[in-house]
Amino acid sequence: MCKIDLLKLYLNEKYTTMDNFINAIRENQFFTVKEMIYTGIPFNTPDKDNITAIYYACEEGCSKIVQLLVSVGANINEGDIINKKTPLMIASEMGHYKIAHFLIKHGALIDCQDRDGNTALMFASLESDLKTTKILVQKGAGLENRNKNGESALGLAMSEMADDVVDFLVDNGALLGEL
User: How far is the CA of 105 from the CAs of 116, 117, 135, 153, in angstroms?
Assistant: First the structure.
């Protein structure tokens, strides 16, 4: 038996469940994830917590795995099903600018709102992440969107005293009178 056959046998025995697939993603085990995809793991199927593989990869900052998942057809707009939080939102929240930029470049919806009404721009602003805030605004993120608490991205940035984000948002049309 060659090494590839042994690896496939090992993977078929050990990595046949979604839990093991998600663990491999969270541990940034690129080659294991790749092999599991090519041996048929249903990578677009949410796990027992109703969260998708690409969401976990975005959360953990596993850019090569995100790229792999997108290349094989992962749904880039579906993440945490229950909370309606997209991969772009979690990448923005966790400060993974390169992943956020990659998702936008590949068609991620920018102004989706989670169950609390938050958008990717709100998460980036709340985390004082100027780079991600800039790319989201440049790609058309709505400055006027509000969450269920009536807060805008500008208001959230102000609450975190993120002066550079506040200045950028105001310079790009966010209104101070409408926090």
Answer: 25, 23, 10, 22
**Number of compact structural domains in the chain:** 1
Is 111 a member of any domain? yes
What are the pLDDT tens digits along the chain (179 aa)? 555 554 555 555 544 588 999 999 999 999 999 999 999 999 999 998 999 999 999 999 999 999 999 999 999 999 999 999 999 999 999 999 999 999 999 999 999 999 999 999 999 999 999 999 999 999 999 999 999 999 999 999 999 998 999 999 999 999 876 54
Residue 100: CATH number of its domain: 1.25.40.20
Give Cα 35 to chain centroid, integer Å. Answer: 22
